[in-house]
Amino acid sequence: MHGENPRAFNLVTAFEVLEHVSDPVGFLSSAAGLLKPGGYLAVSVPNRSGVIRLCEENPHQWPPHYLSWWRLRDLARIGERCNLEIVKIGGDILMGGQIELFGKLRNELRTAWGEKPNGLRRAFPRVASFIYRKAGCKFFFPNLGPSIHAFYRKKS
Predict the structure, then answer these.
(1) Residue numbers of the domain that contains 89
(2) pLDDT digits over 97-134, tens only?
(3) 8 and 79 part of one domain
(4) Alpha carbon of 8 to those of 25, 31, 32, 49: distances in Å?
């Protein structure tokens, strides 16, 4: 077709990338520029409103590793700024084991920093994980897992 970029793609993905770049709007705009009209862009990022809140002390979530934090509304807004139509937006289901993992990590980091652990703090991740799993909470609290995602379509 005349005027169509011969290097354009039907699908471009950026999984767990945006949180590492200093200009996510510029990055996403460039990615959208690689799409054919009607093409799709799939993005996933760590979920700021999800299970990672249990261990904000995790140094892997601090700059320079993560330069930005993301919520579902942030993915919606950045799509609008990049002239992309949202096809689907959502998040991972929180699994009970992730509660235990992030809770234990928090306890280990606090112990490494000199805080004395108490029994309640040590038991909480295991107990909370067990209750979450047995009560079927993943069906009642969607989008609390470690990642969120958006699928965009380039406007024709």
Answers:
(1) 1-93+145-156
(2) 999 999 999 999 989 999 887 788 889 899 999 999 99
(3) yes
(4) 19, 10, 10, 34
Tally the domains of the chain: 2
Q: 156 and 61 in contact (C-beta within 8 Å)?
A: no
Quick: pLDDT tens for 26-73.
999 999 999 999 999 999 999 999 998 888 888 888 888 889 989 999
Does 64 share its domain with 14?
yes
The answer to whether residues 8 and 36 touch, using CB atoms and an 8 Å cutoff, is yes
Amino acid letter for position 140: F
Residue 81 neighbours by CB distance under 10 Å? 12
Question: 3-state DSSP: the chain helix, strand, coil percent, rounded to 5?
Answer: 45, 25, 35
Residue located via tokens 């949180």 = 19
Which structure tokens are listed for 10?
């039907």
Instruction: List alpha helices for 2-148, DSSP H.
Output: 24-33, 72-81, 96-112, 119-134
pTM, whole model, 2 decimals?
0.85
